[in-house]
Structure formats: structure tokens, C-alpha cells
Amino acid sequence: MKELLMKRKSRFMMYILACFIPVLDSTLVNLVMSMIIGSIQVGTKENFIKVLWLSLGVIILGAILYIISRFMRISYMRDTLLDVRLLAFHKILNSSYKEFSKKSKDTYISNLINDINLFESNFFLQLINVIYRGGIYVVSLTIIAFLDLKFAIGAFAISIFLFLISKTFEKKTISLQEEVSEYNEDFAVNISNTFNGLEILKLNNIEDQFLSKSLKSIIGLEKKKFSYNVYTDSQRRVMEFLGFGFVMIALVYLSTLMSKGISLTKITYMFQLSNGCIWNITSILPLFNQLKSSAKIFDKITKVDEENSTAVDKEKDFVFTDKIKVKDLYFEYDGKEILKDASFTIEKGKKYLLKGASGAGKSTLIKLLSMTYDDYKGEIIVDNVSYKDIKESSLNDKVSFIYQDVFLFEDTIYNNIALYKSYEEERILRAANQAGLDGLIGKKENGINEMLMENGKNLSGGERQRISIARAIVKDSEILFVDEGTSSLDEELGRKVEETILSLDCTVIAISHRYYEGITEKYDYVLEIKNQHIYKYDSKEYFMEVAI
């Protein structure tokens, strides 16, 4: 938190100064109000008019100071909140795939929206109040010390007592704030699930059940917000009650001073200053608790766990000129053993087909070979270098993926294939044709520059898959990972795409349940997963035995 605030040190100092500016206005207002009341004791018209003109000047000055203060504060708050959003986004992107997958993507969206909004309202807005009220407290106590040292010492002692009382509320305030954050996450996930499955809900006439479930989520969230607000308000009420007791003591003490001939103006001013001490300190202390709870939210959404960072102590580049060797590989996920004592090699330029029953671990093996998972036992070595020493970004530059679940975004077909990289248009068109997209591009008004809707809603499943295939082809990677790449295509196009994949000048590691006679046999090897073990076969021999 300190690093965040001090990133723009000079502007932060200006921000603090801007928060202090209203303190000057408040102090002047208190002085003028005291002079107005004191003018009654003076009893002359000239004095009263003079004080009224002074009051008007203070009001005008206060308006000017407010505008100056706001302009000094607002740009710093805007830029710092942008930093918070970037830090939160950076944390998400820097987490390992395994850690990222532990939460729903909607949880991360809630962090980026709800938690940052919480931070803005419960940190920055409260920080302004803390600085402003703290400034009034310090100035008021200082002036009182010059006017009556004994009274100032008493006010300070009361402040210490109130601080100790406030500390008893701290842990509960932080806990309730964290619960609000968690309920925001649950609500975001629940609503997202409802929207994602809206078609199924309508087809099965179960909208009311999900509406009821969403309503419970909303009620739970609002109850937590209510609990937090009631608790923080209760703090204020307790502190205000204690503060009222001090005000009564101050009144008694000041009344004794009047009998000693001290002017009404001075008595009134001291009373207002004592109010400045007590009511501001009773407000500040609960605000401190809210600031601490906001700091916890900040740490939650921005603090990177070095253990789970993808960039920890990996310095070597991915270089694949000979083979990838897997030796004595063990891997389990959520306590379930997926692979056991697996040993095999992947030779550069060869084509490998992964076979096995559903859930056997085929997709898991691809994730291990592509560094998505790294908490395995055993060894994965490429050209005598361990995977655990290789920078993930280095491998990502040299591999491509074709998945069954295609990621598309709202932009042109061209940019969805190129992913904003500067390929020549001829290369993009050639990859599109190889992936069977020529028909789609030909019937679109804008051709390859046709805009896609959210996640390619204006395309069929097969068309979406073909864009994914073109994306992999155009990258011209050293390794191509394919997970059911032709599952959404018809027989004719599936054969064409499978043949294209096998003709590429790269190493192919593919999962496919489909068999294209005369084409599938062109894979060099079959890696079959049975009972957590991996068995390697020559492709032609494997399919010959299956046929028999």
C-alpha cells in the first residue's frame, strides 16, 4: 500500500496538502462564528457589521479553497485507482494456470470491478476524511494548547482513551469487509452462470428456479453489506456517545472560566475548538478501521504470491532441435492420480496421436507438455534442459494450440487469426484456405475483414473451429498441440483439415476420437493412456491391430 501511495511522491504530498486546505477554512469559520457571538457582548453596530463583512469574506474564500482542493486531489485519485486496476489485472495474468483455474473467471471480474469500487469508496474517500478531520484535530488541539494548556492536555488524554476503545472494533470491521468481498464474488459467479445457460433454462422452463437462486445470492450479499454498515455505524454511535460526555465536561470547565472574566468570544472559540477535537477524533477512529479493512482488500486483489508466479527463477529459453524426453512422470490433480511412472520421447518433426478412454488424462498430458501444469514428479527434458528451468514465455513463442473450445473476440476474422501480429496478408489468407475458411470468407461482404460478434456468435461451430486452426497454421510453430481439432467439422472438411495438420513442418501432438481412413494412419506414433500408464506404438501397427 505504501508503495502505491508513494509512487507519485510529489503528487501525494499535494494530495495531502489539498486535504488540509479545508482545515484552514473550517478554522476560520469557527473564529468568525465566535466573533459573531462575541459581538453580542461588545454590543456595537459597527463591530457587528465589521464581523459580518469578515464572515462574507471567509465564505467566499472557503468556496475558492474547496475548488482548489478538489482539483488538486482528483487527478491523483484517478491515476492511483488506475494503478490498482493494473496491479489487480497483472496479478491475475501472472498466476499459474493451475492457480487461475481454482476460481471462476467471474470471481476475477468481481475483483476487478466490485473490490476496486469497494477500495475506492472505503479507502480514498475515507482517507480524505481522515486527513481532513485529523488536520482539524491537530490544529484545534494546538490552538487550545496556546489558549489553555491544561484543557489541551485533558483533550489529548480523552483522545487516547477513545483510540483504545476504537481498537476493539478493528478485527470485526476487517472481517466483515472481507465477507462483503467474498459475497460479491459469489454473486458475480451466480449471475454469470445464469446468463451463460439462459438458452437451456428457457428450453427446460426452469427460469424461476434460477431466479430464486439468484435472489438468494442478492439477499445474502445485501445482508452482508447491511451487517458491515450497521457495525461501522455502531462504532460511530459509540464514539459519539463518549464524545458527548467529553463535550459536557468541556462545557462545565469553560463555564468556570467565564466567572474569571474571560471574554465570550474566547470562550465560544475554545468550545468550538474542543468540538473540533472531540467530534473529529470520534469520526477518525472508526475511519481508521475502514482504511485497514480496505488495505486487506487491496492486498487480496493485487499482492502476487511468488510461489504461484509464472516467472519465478526460470532463465533458460525453450530450444527444441532433437527430442523431448519424459521420464518417470507422476501427476495427480485434486488428490486423484492421473499419470504414473510414464516414460516416452517426443522426436522433433514427428506426429503423435494421443488415445485413451474419456478422462484417462490425454488433455492433462498436453497441459504438462505445454508447461500449463508444472507440479509433477519425474522429469520432462527438452534437449537436455529441464522444463522446470525454462521460461514459459519462451515456450509459448514456439507452440500453437487448437482446442475444441475456441477463443474468439469482437474484431475482424483477420485479427482473430493474426492475434494482432504483423503477418503479411497473403500468409493469413493462405492459412485461412488451408483451414477451410475460403468458403466463409467468400460469402462475407467484407471478406477476411468481416467483424465477428462476441465469441464468434455469428459463426457456426465448425467455422469457429476453422479460425482456430488457421490461427495455429499461420504461427508456423515448432510444436502444434491439438485437442479434438476436427470434432466440430463434417467428414469431408475434417479429413481435409487433418491432412493439413499432418502436412505441417512441425511436431504435432494431437487428441482425436475421429478416425479418417487413409489419413489417421499417417501419424508416426500413437501414445495410448491406460490405467495411468502411457504406451507408445507405431501408428500403422496400432491401427492394423485395431482393424483386426
Question: What's the story with the biggest beta sheet?
Answer: 6 strands, mixed
What structural category arises from helix and sheet content? Answer: alpha/beta
Low-pLDDT runs: 308-312
Task: Please tell me the total number of domains.
Answer: 2
Strand order of the largest sheet: 6-7-8-3-9-10
- Which CATH class of the largest domain is shown? Mainly Alpha
What is the 3D form?
Answer: elongated
Order of helices and strands: HHHHHHHHHHEEEHEEHEHHHHEHEEEH
Mean pLDDT: 80
CATH level 3 topology of the largest domain: ABC transporter transmembrane region fold
- Quaternary structure: single chain
- Strand content is 5-15%
What's the CATH architecture of the largest domain?
A: Up-down Bundle
Total beta-strand segments: 10
CATH superfamily annotation of the largest domain: ABC transporter type 1, transmembrane domain
Describe the structure.
- GO terms for molecular function: ABC-type transporter activity; ATP binding; ATP hydrolysis activity; ATPase-coupled lipid transmembrane transporter activity.
- Keywords: ATP-binding, Membrane, Nucleotide-binding, Transmembrane, Transmembrane helix.
- It is a multi-pass membrane protein.
- Residues 324-548 form the ABC transporter domain.
- InterPro entries: AAA+_ATPase, ABC1_TM_dom, ABC1_TM_sf, ABC_transporter-like_ATP-bd, ABC_transporter-like_CS, P-loop_NTPase, Type_1_exporter.
- With 548 residues, this protein is of the alpha/beta class.
- It has 2 domains: 73-307, ABC transporter transmembrane region fold; 323-547, Rossmann fold, CATH 3.40.50.300.
- It is built from 18 helices and 10 strands.
- Strands 6-7-8-3-9-10 form a 6-stranded mixed beta sheet, sandwiched between helices. Strands 2-1-4-5 form a 4-stranded antiparallel beta sheet, covered by helices on one side.
- Helix 6 (149-167) runs parallel beside helix 10 (264-302), helix 7 packs antiparallel against helix 9 and helix 14 crosses helix 16.
- The longest helix is centred in the middle third of the chain and has 52 residues, at 207-258.
- It is elongated.
- The two termini are 68 Å apart.
- The model is unreliable at 308-312 (pLDDT under 50).
